[in-house]
From TrEMBL:
Reactions that this protein is recorded to catalyse: D-glyceraldehyde 3-phosphate + pyruvate + H(+) = 1-deoxy-D-xylulose 5-phosphate + CO2
Cofactor note: Binds 1 Mg(2+) ion per subunit. Binds 1 thiamine pyrophosphate per subunit.
GO molecular function per UniProt: 1-deoxy-D-xylulose-5-phosphate synthase activity
Keyword Disulfide bond: no
Residue stretches in coiled coil: none
SUPFAM superfamilies per record: Thiamin diphosphate-binding fold (THDP-binding), TK C-terminal domain-like
Species of the source: Aquibaculum arenosum
Binding-site residues, thiamine diphosphate: 76, 117-119, 149-150, 177, 287, 369
Annotated protein name in UniProt: 1-deoxy-D-xylulose-5-phosphate synthase
Keywords on record: Isoprene biosynthesis, Magnesium, Metal-binding, Thiamine biosynthesis, Thiamine pyrophosphate, Transferase
Stored SMART domains: Transket_pyr (SM00861)
Pfam families: DXP_synthase_N, Transket_pyr, Transketolase_C
Domain Transketolase-like pyrimidine-binding: 318-483
This enzyme's EC code(s): 2.2.1.7
Length: 641
């Protein structure tokens, strides 16, 4: 029999449920091998999936998915679930154009009842499902699987507060691997560690086995006895119980002989209200390179399965994140009031470097973007200069804090918005598409976007010096353009852009990192005898009114360019031009190039840029069409879907 024969017989969870319980460890081993092999060719999130292999097998074995709803928090650990739910044949297309999503997706499978990728939504969604089920008088189960890192977010507590007081039956599996992307932070993490290190943890190993012997079946009496037994032996004094949950655990999440009977009994518990099963796992489990690495192979590029060595391409230029971190460290050397805050993304934002240099001035608040923003607001009230360093997509979660706690109070919180624009393989949930739109409408904000890494340094210096009110600086994922870096950033004049190339017929006004494409398009147009100006707006707010007037009155075509959604920079420009009456004559051919009004899926960044119609060819074609060259190369850019 071939090594993967058992996994080959399992296309769907119903096949898995036909196996003998004793066969499950072997299936788990094969599943783990398949996961490692698949991710070695696609890259992606590996450590979290390795840690839930046994849990995934046990959940699909015990619960009647998809009738029972299994909701994974974040969804970055769901590759084993995808392999077992009819998607094994496409697993090597993960995160690639037209391939499987790297997260759960309702559009992809009936086994994904709720789409995710941002954390800590699973208990709320699960409770919604459970209440809907009860109102409809139906009887399926709902299981939400949430990590210890995701437990640090406010939403998880809001949901537990609601669930604990509700009579709806909801099963929450807390997958506690004592890791977030970085080591977990905060008091809750300490609470979980204390539960695990308490006596009850050591007894549960035997308790799990006892349970399986004593209560093997689905009989009501067994379930009731389990209820009593568990109450007496494996619960006690947890925060979850205080919140109205029936707490079960901790359970060894890699021991199927514990997991299966415990889950089975929880499934059959004749008790209303929510249950929390505390499962202890190891991130990266079963793959030595992952287990031994500091980040447990949370996210990897393609790698060699034997050595675990990742195929990281040699960088051509420093990353924006790296330059940001160095620039901020430089500013902080000169200004002791500068502090920096991350919401569980120290390495992704470069604040790990800042934290090494200034441990007392760097704060990882956990997955808690809302708190991060208001925490910064409080720091600013006392004269500190906080940099709230948050990915564009995750800052969405803290919008009211940005408006209510920062903007209305005119507090000088500096938002350093990394991953602004298209992010590649993480896809639709992680695109940094909206920050320009959602910030530019707020009075008093200063908004900047870096066209290259030297500009990024100037903008960090500008933010550091800006004490009057809130500011935001956006920059993309990945490498910079390889420009020379200054010794230190220079403070820029607020609201002033710069002209990089003078022309007479066409003007391209770029905001942010697509300036390179604008310059390339200008070359193409110039080669056709069409003289083209290229300007870098630097600021979306306040706008450079003089520059706008000049570009609008001295050119036949004005193209605005940004890697952001409709309602962003172009909207600000059009508003200003219209207000000044510069559109009244009807002479100017104004063409806004921004992200199309649809969600952009996973793929390579270059593919996504092409889908969005923001390549140099697209820019040139837009100018040509505006001038009546209807046979211009490039695609007609759809305004909407
Ligand atoms: C709102 C939000 N902030 C940040 C992230 C980035 N992020 C993805 S996974 C993760 C760690 C989650 O830790 P945990 O829930 O314990 O899962 P584990 O990776 O340990 O399995 C973080 C911070 C996110 N997805 N969503
Ligand atoms: C699941 C998640 O939200 C993070 O792991 C994210 O994928 C990190 O993205 P970067 O690779 O851009 O840091
Ligand atoms: Mg974790």
């Amino acid at each position: 029999m071939s090594k993967t024969a058992l996994l080959d017989t399992v296309r769907l969870p119903q096949d898995l449920r036909a196996l003998e319980e004793g066969e499950l460890p072997r299936l788990a081993d094969e599943l783990r091998s398949e996961l490692i092999d698949a991710v070695s060719v696609t890259g992606g999130h590996l450590g979290a999936g390795l840690g839930v292999v046994e849990l995934t097998v046990a959940l699909h074995y015990v619960f009647d998915t998809p009738r029972d709803k299994l909701i994974w928090d974040v969804g970055h650990q769901c590759y084993p679930h995808k392999i077992l739910t009819g998607r094994r044949d496409r697993i090597r297309s993960l995160r690639q154009a037209d391939g499987l999503s790297g997260f759960t997706s309702r559009a992809e499978s009936e086994y994904d009842p709720f789409g995710a990728a941002h954390s800590s939504t699973s208990i709320s969604a699960g409770l919604g499902y459970a209440v809907a089920r009860d109102m409809a008088g139906e009887d399926w189960r709902v299981v939400s699987v949430i990590g210890d890192g995701a437990m640090s977010a406010g939403m998880a507590y809001e949901a537990m507060n609601n669930a604990g007081a509700s009579g709806s039956k909801l099963i929450v599996v807390l997958n506690d691997n004592d890791m977030s992307i970085a080591p977990p932070v905060g008091a809750m993490s300490g609470h979980l560690s204390r539960i695990i290190s308490s006596k009850s943890f050591h007894s549960v190993r035997s308790v799990g086995k006892q349970l399986s012997r004593r209560f093997p079946g689905r009989l009501k009496s067994a379930a009731e006895r389990f209820d009593e037994y568990a109450r007496g032996l494996i619960t006690g004094g947890t925060l979850f119980e205080e919140l109205g949950f029936f707490y079960v655990g901790p359970v060894d999440g890699h021991d199927l002989s514990q997991l299966v009977p415990v889950l089975r009994n929880v499934r059959d518990l004749e008790r209303q209200g929510p249950v929390l099963v505390h499962v202890v796992t190891q991130k990266g489990k079963g793959y030595t390179p992952a287990e031994e690495s500091a980040d447990k192979y949370h996210g990897v590029v393609k790698f060699d399965v034997v050595t675990g060595k990742q195929a990281k391409p040699k960088p051509q230029a420093p990353s924006y994140t790296g330059v940001f971190a160095q620039a901020l460290i430089g500013e902080a050397e000169r200004d002791e009031k500068i502090v920096a805050v991350t919401a569980a993304m120290p390495s992704g934002t470069g604040l790990d470097k800042f934290g090494s240099r200034f441990p007392e001035r760097c704060f990882d608040v956990g997955i808690a973007e809302q708190h991060a923003v208001t925490f910064c607001a409080g720091l600013a009230c006392e004269g500190y200069r906080p940099f709230a360093t948050i990915y564009s997509t995750f800052l969405q979660r803290a919008y009211d804090q940005v408006v209510h706690d920062v903007a209305i109070q005119k507090l000088p919180v500096r938002f350093a918005i990394d991953r602004a624009g298209l992010v590649g393989a993480d896809g639709v949930t992680h695109q940094g598409s909206y920050d320009i739109s959602y910030l530019a409408c707020l009075p008093g904000f200063v908004l900047m976007a870096a066209a290259d890494e030297a500009e990024l340094m100037h903008m960090v210096a500008t933010q550091a010096a800006l004490d009057e009110g809130p500011s935001a600086l956006r920059f993309p994922r990945g490498e910079g353009r390889g420009v020379d870096l200054p010794e230190r950033g220079q403070v820029l004049e607020i609201g002033k852009g710069r002209v990089l190339r003078e022309g007479t017929k066409i003007a391209i006004l770029s905001y942010g990192a697509r300036l390179g494409e604008a310059l390339e398009a200008a070359e193409t147009l110039a080669s056709k005898g069409l003289s083209t100006t290229v300007a870098d707006a630097r600021f979306a707010k306040p706008l450079d009114h003089d520059l706008l007037r000049r570009l609008a009155s001295e050119h036949e075509v004005l193209i605005t360019l940004e890697e952001g959604a409709v309602g962003g920079f172009a909207t600000q420009v059009m508003q200003q031009l219209a207000t000044e009456g510069l559109l009244d004559s009807g002479q100017l051919k104004l063409r806004p190039l921004c992200l199309p009004d649809r969600f952009i899926d996973h793929g390579k960044p270059a593919e996504q840029l092409a889908w969005a119609g923001l390549t140099a060819d697209d820019i040139a074609a837009t100018a040509l069409r505006a001038l009546g060259y209807n046979d211009a190369p490039g695609r007609e850019r759809p305004a909407t879907a």
